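Long-time lurker. I teach an intro course on protein structure, and each term I like to show students one example going from raw sequence to a predicted 3D structure in token notation. This year I'd like something fresh instead of my usual example. Would anyone be willing to generate the tokens for the chain below so I can use it in lecture? Attribution to the forum is fine with me.
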Amino acid sequence: LPSEPLDPQGAIRPREVGLMITLLAGIGLVGFLLIHFTGTRKGLRTTAALAGLVSSTALVFAFSRESRKEPGAGTELGLGMALACTIMYARTLAVAAVTGPAILPWLAPPVLAMLGASYGAYRLISRRAPAGDEVPEGFQIKNPTELSMAIKFGIFSDHDEINLLAQFDR
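-- Reply from a regular --
Happy to contribute to a lecture. Here you go:
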């Protein structure tokens, strides 16, 4: 897809939109496979952890949408979102270490503090969650390749993750 914007304001760049759609659809497919092969609870959390490395925003969007369809899965979906957001801090440090290591002395202390606080909150909340697999019987992501949600997110998101990935593409 072309990287030049389609509109005069430069807001719609087909390449970024296409990459975001692919990213979101990929998260859905990986989540579907993980849930199928490892069980619902483990699959949701593993999907969340992997998505935190790529796009916690996309995962929050996808899991929020699933929680509307299946409110009984809200605890596990919420924990997955919290885990993805926690991992986002580690991703931030890793990206900074690769792209601009000179910033690490100023960036690392606050980001590590946020990572620690976020992980602590995640652990506390996950311990308070009911024991066992509290995801409703039969819960599953029914169509992992459903593109309508991915297309909407791809068009209307801010593309920060894609802009970051594009830096490595050069």
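Some talking points for your students: The helical segments are 14-38, 40-54, 56-69, 74-99, 104-128, 147-156, 160-169. Confidence is low (pLDDT under 50) at residues 164-170.
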